[in-house]
Specification:
- By secondary structure, the chain is of the alpha+beta class.
- It contains five helices and 15 strands.
- The longest helix is centred in the first third of the chain and has 16 residues.
- The radius of gyration is 19 Å and the shape is elongated.
């Protein structure tokens, strides 16, 4: 799956870590900007053993505590993503290839809280990932994809596939990044805005 990591112009060091070291940093989910991140509700079914359910919920809560998150997006052509995460088109979107495995989840958008139904809560670690790949639908514009794991470093299986810089980026920084991309064999593009929205124009390095 192709996904994009946005970085502000002031976060060049973090961008270079992705480009040169081929890795993504995963943060403690409690440091993310959604105030209801990780909050979930649950319900009882007829005949449920309430003690068993409470025990399962405690296990899910414990499972969440060790998980770390790297947030990416399925798209680069969102004005809001560039405004919020790439310093108003002065930053960049880094395209990477993510594996098709249980560490990578597309976020499901819903009401304010994630909800778990009983009586079958299932594997606690899997359910903890379900909670942390569920977000309030006010965030749906992000089209978020998440890496969920316990290690703070997620190693990419290959190089960055594309770098898209914002059209407001400092020209000196564009030049510096172009030299790095050329050395690494990475194609580089720059955003453009037209009647149909945001596109990415290839830059001849």
């Amino acid at each position: 799956m192709k996904a994009f990591k946005f970085r502000a112009e002031s976060q060049v060091a973090f961008a270079l870590d992705i480009i040169l070291n081929r890795q993504l940093f995963c943060a403690d989910w409690r440091t993310l900007n959604d105030p209801v991140e990780g909050v979930f509700s649950y319900s009882y079914g007829p005949g449920d053993d309430k003690d068993a359910v409470e025990e399962a919920v405690d296990a899910i809560t414990a499972g969440k505590s060790g998980l770390k998150v790297c947030s990416l997006s399925k798209t680069f052509d969102s004005h809001l993503l560039w405004a919020h995460y790439a310093s108003g088109f002065s930053g960049m979107a880094i395209e990477v290839e993510l594996p098709d495995d249980d560490r990578v989840r597309e976020v499901v958008y819903r009401g304010v809280f994630a909800h778990l139904s009983t009586p079958v809560l299932g594997d606690a670690d899997a359910m903890a990932k379900d909670v942390l790949s569920s977000k309030y639908d006010a965030w749906a514009y992000e089209q978020e994809v998440r890496v969920l794991q316990r290690d703070p470093v997620f190693k990419l299986s290959g190089p960055v596939t594309r770098l898209i810089v914002g059209h407001r980026m400092n020209p000196a920084l564009v030049k510096g990044l172009s030299l790095i991309c050329k050395a690494e064999g990475i194609e580089m593009f720059r955003t453009g805005i037209g009647d149909e929205g945001i596109d990415a124009d290839w830059l001849d390095l």
